[in-house]
Amino acid sequence: MKVNKNIQVKGKPQKWKDVRSKRCRSSIKSSNLNSSPVMVKMVKEHQASMKKKPSLKRLKNKPKTVPEKKKNSPSGFKKLESQANGCSKFALNDEIENLPDFMEGSESVHINGMETSEESEEVPGSRLEGEALHHCAQRGNQQNRAVLVMQKNQTLCFRGKCIVTCLYGRVEVMGFTIDEGQKSYPLFSPASHCPLTLRALGHTDYVRDDRTEASNILEDYLSAASRKKLVKKVTPTSSIILLEPLETPLTHFLSSFTHLSELFSPPVSELMSAVLDTPLNGLGVIPLASNIEGLKISRSCRDALGTVINACKGDIDGCAVILVCGVKNVGKSTFIRILINTLLNHTSNVDYLEGDLGQTEFTPPGCLSLSTVKEPLLGPPFTHQVTPDHMIYYGQSSCETDLDGYLESLKSLWRRRPQSREIPVIINTMGWVKGLGFQLLVDLIRFLPVTHVVQLSHGVSTQCSSLTPDFLRMAQGYQTHPPSQTALDELTERHCPPKTYTHLNVQSEFRGVARQGTAKHQRSNEQRELSLLGYLSQLQSDDPGPVRPLHTLTPYQVPSTAVALGVIHCEVAPSHMFYAINASLVGLCCLAEKVTSKGGPVILSQATLCPCVGFGVLRGIDTARGLYFLLTPVDPSVLRNVNCLLLGAISLPSCILTEQVCGQFIRHTYQSNACVFVCVLTGTCFSVSAQL
Length: 692
Description:
- Strand 2 and strand 3 form a beta hairpin.
- The chain has three domains: 131-287, Jelly Rolls (Sandwich), CATH 2.60.120; 299-507, P-loop containing nucleotide triphosphate hydrolases (Rossmann fold, 3-Layer(aba) Sandwich), CATH 3.40.50.300; 549-663 and 672-677, Pre-mRNA cleavage complex subunit Clp1, C-terminal domain (Elongation Factor Tu (Ef-tu), domain 3, Beta Barrel), CATH 2.40.30.
- Helix 8 crosses helix 9 (332-344).
- The strands form four sheets. Strands 1, 2, 3, 4, 5, 6, 7, 8, 9 and 10 form a ten-stranded mixed β-sheet that branches. Strands 14-13-12-15-11-16-17 form a seven-stranded mixed β-sheet, sandwiched between helices. A seven-stranded mixed β-sheet has the order 18-23-22-20-24-19-21.
- The chain is of the alpha+beta class and 692 residues long.
């Protein structure tokens, strides 16, 4: 595909450290912790309540003495409220004992930074809130950042976003351990998901002069007075973290939409639990009181994690291939994020095969993809939209209309994975586990060399049959039939799937299990919209400044004879193709055969599933010059391989068309035998003949 672009508006994405080094702001007073009206009102109410004198009610009679009784010390943590499908705390009642490491030199680090159950009872976890935050946190005197001292097993549950750096000791978030000396990581805790929780783990067991060393570390970040206050809080098991504001093109782009301006603020249900007037509020971090908890993980889930870690050590031949399945809203995405983060504590890469069309992790919805994960997942899917190694645009959020195409696409993606790789593979599946959906699961386990099947369930009722090896031998699949005979002989010969696998049943205890989220930003369609907006935010420049609406960006000019147009999800008459595809989201795909034109646009009579390199917005059509105007974040060197634009059922978010400057994206009026497209973005009229 030949592309021409006169003005270059994109640049290479900056690293987190580069973005962070440019953020120097003056200190922020408690009166302007957050510019939103909701947060300003909260601050004023909170300050007024602090000035009121508490009312005392005196006893009319003398209190009676109560005989002392022996109380058993509570074991483990109290029950925590959590929710599925979110980024949150990895709270353990007991430790996964004897989890071996499989990286050289990692023996000194516990898995996920968690300690044994005996140690956790001696040092029970506590929430940092209220006055404790004033004593344990100090703001930098020159830059807009804060230093926080946390004792072992202390937690900080919050809403907002920030950059975290571990200066001393270790902390854990969402299963990933951040050690001192490691690079900084961005944390995203929006209202659309369960709040994130930081947990202090202390440091390794070697002896160190904690206060002297901590004082030297803090010298670069705090004044002498602030440093003196914090050093008093440092113990041999303390952790010290640096929190800095986080502003990226993604967050800047999302905040430009009215309905998303409070995305990183506490939702209405948490407003009364928000802890205000702390040194952290001015950074974009709003701590939550102890009645709001992060994610709780069940004992069966911990056991499953331990089994997978042991397998990845090398207890099996080849690499571990873990397929995760379960009904909708049972917490598959949450479990997978924790699993990936836990694995990244020990290995540098994890492969991820996306099989859930509706709730994708790294791409816009409607995609099947194979990705190599190298960084921890410390936020919802819309915060880590990346380009997969291989991707197929299926074009719909469900596969009910083309089951064979769904299976063939996943097989094709698996073939593209280098078989010499011995890193773990995580396979995500749909929440469709009834009827044909269950048969698809049976086929996937037979087609792919699965070593572990993690099946999530909830409650005492049975959502579907247990996919054990014994059950699978006699189960009916969509393309396979008992006894187990794969319908892909060449895949069987090449990959030699094991004759059996380990079945792990996980009882989900996440809050919101079996219920569709009803709060703002938590519905499935809103989650898909956020992922699309996260992808489109890549069109924004890394340079600070106002958000640039799509109509102000310079599009690529694509010759209509160089690419074919196709529709995946329905049939469209060739004479109506321009009507359907203009001002729409299209997949940038690569057909195996060369596109040939006889002088006009190339229309596919039947769209086929093919490799996809990214997405774009078809901004306009110039029929006189035979040009398509395309907006896309895909690099021009990759665009040269694109020869097909596919339209699916995944549409642009409505806010793109209604809330950006200039209102409408495209307006069209009908005349006798032609359609005149009036591009509001440029003011240019494009006449499209009804007879192509």
